[in-house]
Amino acid sequence: MSATAPAVPPASAGGTPPGSRPSGGSAAGGDTDPRLRARRRRRLVAALFLLPALLLLGALVAYPILFSVGRSLFDATGTRFVGADNYVEMFRDPTTLKAIRNSAIWVVVAPALLTGLGLILAVLTEKVRWATAFKLLMFMPMAISFLAAGIIFRITYEQDPDRGVLNAVAVGVHDVFADRPAYPGARAREEAGGTEVTEGKDGSYGTAADLSPGGTLALGVVGVPPGEVPAEAEPAAAPTADGGSGDALTGTVFLDFTPGGGGEPGRIDEGERGLPGMTVQAVRDGKVVGETTTAADGSFRLTGLADGSYAVRLPASNFAEPYGGVSWLGPALVTPAIIGAYLWIWTGFSMVLIGAGLSAMPRDVLEAARMDGAGEWQIFRRITVPLLAPVLTVVFVTLVINVMKVFDLVYIIAPGPVLQDANVLAMQMWLVSFGGGNDQGLGSAIGVLLLLLVVPAMIFNIRRFQRSRR
């Protein structure tokens, strides 16, 4: 049986033999397409323009991150591999744990306050005619470096009221409502005309309970600088017995110091002056039964006393140190004080960004709500805030990222003795690595922790930008 040859279709006139390529194509599968060549050229040009930025980004961002991760796995010398020991040590170190706690306080408090203040100021600014000047004034601190701002607030928070503005205000307000001590730092003589004077546990000075109505007493006081003796002080008058009523104790409180030397301690000598304004109390059985204030010559008279024995006391309020204000930079308030400085710098930034979002809001919605009878508070709570939610979120997350890296203000404002109480992660990383710790392995581990804490906020912000662009 013979094989049958396969049928070959006839070639059409002007056609292409089977299996051959179209005459318009090429062996490269369309490499000669002009649109494809233009697209490849654009990609090449874009890559050439991006290459310097990518190199810079790699040198300043990618390489330091990778190097820090690798360095965190080695010891302080950088020669011995220790694995995760630095990370374990980081969470065992009380100083680092305090820095983490303070950083958490910063993240919770500062962005929330800044966003709230920015929102309130942005809304209120729309109600005034001088809004532009106010915005400019609020934004000006952003032009000041953190170094200069730290120096400003370090002086502002000074404990000495003569230097610290806040304490000068605090002392002024306090002195309006409370009397200043008459003679701060002074003390009474141990003997007053043969009567022993003792110091109490509360800083007061008193005699023994052996004085009766009709008696006299001269109480000498020392430790009063001549320049602090009141101008109205007159020469001390020798105490005289009560004029016959029999219900009073009389005496004199004087500065027991004779100009030019000489004189006898405990006695009123010529040239010695009385101390006016000194509070004197009569005490019986531990209770104050009489009180008076010395005159210009230091004399006093305690009246209305029944028969019996009394002690005379100069209360501690006469000798207490004057009110010195608030210890803003003490261990308890140093972190809130530094956050206050941070608010001063960044409130303008928050206000301007939120104000830009506020100006883009549809006004017809607000007018419709007012026409429906909604009050300003209802409009703010139910319309303004919801419409500004995307802007508020961006501002809040941006500030969270920023406060995680705060360093300058803490380093400059916090005094040395309380630096550890104000410590934050960025500060601890520097202190461990270069500020005396000289352990760059542990410092790199803290830096990696800081990076891991910042990255989620950055990712969230980027996704917000992408969603808003879509």
Automatic annotation (TrEMBL):
PROSITE patterns assigned to the protein according to its UniProt record, in alphabetical order: ABC_TM1 (PS50928)
Membrane topology: Multi-pass membrane protein
Residue ranges of every copy of the ABC transmembrane type-1 domain listed in the record: 100-461
An example Gene Ontology CC term for this record: plasma membrane
Residue segments, region Disordered: 1-33, 185-205
UniProt entry tagged with the keyword Metal-binding: no
Localization in the cell: Cell membrane
Domain of life assignment: Bacteria
Record-annotated membrane-spanning stretches: 44-66, 104-124, 136-157, 337-358, 379-401, 441-462
Keywords (A to Z) from UniProt: Cell membrane, Membrane, Transmembrane, Transmembrane helix, Transport
Biased composition (Basic and acidic residues): 187-202
Primary localization class, coarse: membrane
Residue ranges, compositional bias (Low complexity): 1-15
Keyword tRNA-binding: no
Biological processes annotated in GO: transmembrane transport
PANTHER family: BLL4140 PROTEIN, DIACETYLCHITOBIOSE UPTAKE SYSTEM PERMEASE PROTEIN DASB
Family named by the database record: Belongs to the binding-protein-dependent transport system permease family.
Name the record gives this protein: ABC transporter permease subunit
